[in-house]
Every structure is written in C-alpha cells, then in structure tokens.
Fold these 3 entries.
Entry 1:
Amino acid sequence: MKDRFSLFEVRDLLGIRRNRLQEWLSLGYIKASVKRSDGRGFRNYFSKEDLYRILLFDKLRFLGVHRTAALALIKDIEVEELVKLRRKYYSFWPSPEGGWIGVAQEKPISLADDEIFRLVINLEAVKMEVDEKLE
C-alpha cells in the first residue's frame, strides 16, 4: 500500500476539487506531512493520516462548520485516535470560556440536562471511508 499521495491523488480518492484542496493548503487548513512543496514546480505529498484529516475537514465543512472551527476541532484529535482507533468516537461541546472541549470516548454519552448540543465524530467511519477508497 502507498505511504504518500500527491494532491491529484487526494483529489481523485476523496472527490474534493483540486482548487479547493489548493486553497485549503495555501491557507493552512490542511498540511502535507510527508513532503511540503518548497515552491513553484514542487509537489506536496500527503500521508494516509493526512487523508483522514482532510476527509474529516471536508465533512465538517459540508455540515456548515466554519473552516477555522473545523481546523480547531481536527487539531484536537490525536493522530493516534485516527490511526489506532483506541477510542471509536470523539465528542466536542462548547466551552463556557469559548471554543470547544473535546474528549475521546468508547461510545458517545448522552447529553447532560443543561447541554443543548454536542458534536460527536465517529472516527471509525472516517477511517473506514478512506481505507475503502485506498483498496
């Protein structure tokens, strides 16, 4: 199995328009962890873990989450959680001070009586979707 993917391969695998990926890359919303382009004519290469994060970023954007908020949420999820699936779910809820509080869980817990909403991400489903596309 491949261990690095070009921007074109990411586009084809995840079905995200190339110019959208390019914009996210130039604005710092996604990063190429294998090799970052040093300038014009050089390529970025992404890891499998990068693909998980890019897919999750795209899904959050589709749901209407602002790019800055989506980036903050994804940064909070450890790579270990995505790769090894030590815990299947990651839950976020608004912090009283602003921002989000995130925690990895075996299964999502129900809302507290004073909670209005909570964002729960099924990490296993994200991983499976990317892994199936790579087969």
Entry 2:
Amino acid sequence: MLPRRVRKELAGIVGKGNLKVEPAELALYGYDATPQAEVCPPDAVVLPRPHWCLDAIRAQRFWGAQQYHYTAPVPGILAIHEALRLICEETLERRFKRHALSSDALQAGIEAMGLELYVEKAHRLNSVVAIRLPDGHDGIEVRRNMSDVYGVEIAGAFGLPVVRVGQMGEQCRSHNLFKVLYALGMSFRRAGAELDVSRGMAALEGHLAKDLDQLIG
C-alpha cells in the first residue's frame, strides 16, 4: 500500500483537470482522480467507494489481509498501482509543471497558426484545450481527418462550436504535442481554413525551448 504521506498528496478533485494534472486545495476534497490524468485504464481510479475498481481500501484488504471471497479485477488493480508508482517517481511538483508548460505551449501554437481558443486565458485548465471552430467549419470532418490520416484522436463537445484536445499524462510530451498540433492545423487547412501551420509549429517549439529542466521529454 502507498505510504500515508503519498496517499495524502494524491488527494485531488473530480473532473478532467484534477489529480496529478493541477494543484488543488487538498482540505476541500476527498480522494479522487480520472484514468486520463493517471494514465491507466478506465475505472481504475482512487476512490474509497464500495466497488472493486474504485476502492483502494478494499484492494489493500485483498492483497494485504487476504480478505476476499471472489476474484478481484487484478489487471485494473495492477494498472493503477503502476500509474501511481510512475506519478510518485516523477513527483507531483514536476508533473504539475510539465502539464502547465505543455498546455501553455500547445495553446501558443494553436493561436499562432490562426485558431481561437474558446475560453479566456485566466479561466483555462491545463488538462483540456477547447478550440473554437471557425465559421462554416465542421468539427466532425476535422476530427475524422485527424484520425484517418494522422492517427490522432481529439474530442468534440456537447452543443458548443469547439473541438477539444486533452492534455493529460503522456500526451504532455514533446513528440505528442508536435504531432497533435500538426494534425490539427493540416486537417483544418484541408477543410478550407486559412491557417499558418508553420508559424504555429514554431510557436510551440519556442515555448518548449523554455523547458530547461527537461520536464517534457
């Protein structure tokens, strides 16, 4: 079982922009996380609830005290253990900095190529970037082209004229940032948008060059 100090540090908030992505006032929240932020399979999250895939306490009883009467979801338990091990190895401080730097760099690249971000800068999360669709453009077409041609998946939205790029876990690595931004820009261009993709890529590179601690890799 993870040490008490580590478990306390891993307390976070509900939602995409949460545990292991951005700092939180720990006194306000309980143990929680999303698999996207943890980089582990769906349903493998830290929550003290009466369900195998959500209950770290029950998992500890299974492994530590052999208190069980049916088979546990071993792959999910091992997956979350490995995800948390990687987080502890990196440390939360470096992880927060990596996500902040990655998100800032991607946002700068998106805006430099000529697209508009949906949310004002003061209210943006590091974990999700929402991009306003240019007038007359279909997000489904852009997303389909990104998937078919570049093997990059991004999300749409529920009623809003945006597409969304998740910025969590291993997505916040330099090679993934370059791939996503290039796929996004070229797919919008294919759909008829007038964008300066090379300028956006240069802005992304310029922001990543600030990573003197080599957080992003």
Entry 3:
Amino acid sequence: MIDMTMDALRAAIGLEPGGDSTRVHAGVHTDSRLIEAGGVFVALPGENTDGHRFLGSVARRGGRVAIVSMDSAEIQAQGWATDQELQALTLLQVPDPQLALGQLAKAHLRQLREKSVAGQGHLKLVAESPARQGKPPPRTSLVNFFPRWDRPWLPKPPSTTKSVYL
C-alpha cells in the first residue's frame, strides 16, 4: 500500500510532475482482479496476455491510476476499454511499465525507511508518552532491533526466554 501524492508517484516512475497534490493511498497491483477503489494498476505486457486488456475492468472496479505503455487512442482501437472507462482512470504512460513498477517499489521502500529508521519511530513514541514527562528518554541499544543471526557472537538465550525476531 502506497501513500504519496500524485506528483510524487509521477516523479517516482520518471515522469514530470503535473501539479496534482491529491494523495494516493491504495494498493498497487498487476492483477486487475485485486484492484480496490482508488487502487493503482500496472499494465504489464506478458507472453499470453497484455495487462492493457484489463483497463476496462480496472475502471469498473474503481481503480484510480493505471501505469501503461500505450496511449488511450491505441487502447480504444484495440477495444480493451471505452472512452468513458479511460476517463475514469488517470493514465500514466511510460516506456516500460515493469521498470516503472520497480521504481515505484523503490520509492515506497525509501519512504518507509524515512518514516522509521531502525525502530526510532517507536523510541520517539515512548519518549513522548505522558508517563515519561520530565524524565530522560529510556536507554536502549539498537542491537536489540536486529535478529540473532546478525549477532552470532552473542550467547544463546536460556530456554525460558522467548526470543522475538524481526
């Protein structure tokens, strides 16, 4: 599930911003059957079928954005979607939708890292809780945020201790 503005989405896949600051908070799918209202569909060409064939279905299911490699006239000429269905979607035309999907995934992961680096978001919430007012932030070690296989030099915990791996 992505949460970004349309301009950020356009920039993530290598397009010029269009001055649209509305937020896209939805899933990104390559399967038209999984599209939800407000969803983003990536029309991937394949060996057996072409994702562009399902743009009409995406529009009927309430999809909002479609990342495509064809222009709307070509899609209509093929009979894959009507003009009304295409107007319901924001078509973002790119040379390679598969590459655009990878770029969008990379931008999404970057956005997640910025929100919470190694659990710092959790530490901030603990430090700002009303019970801690006037007290220094709790002491912690970032080593505890990483799985045990990252730290083979540490002894194994006793059998009574439950380990939680991230």
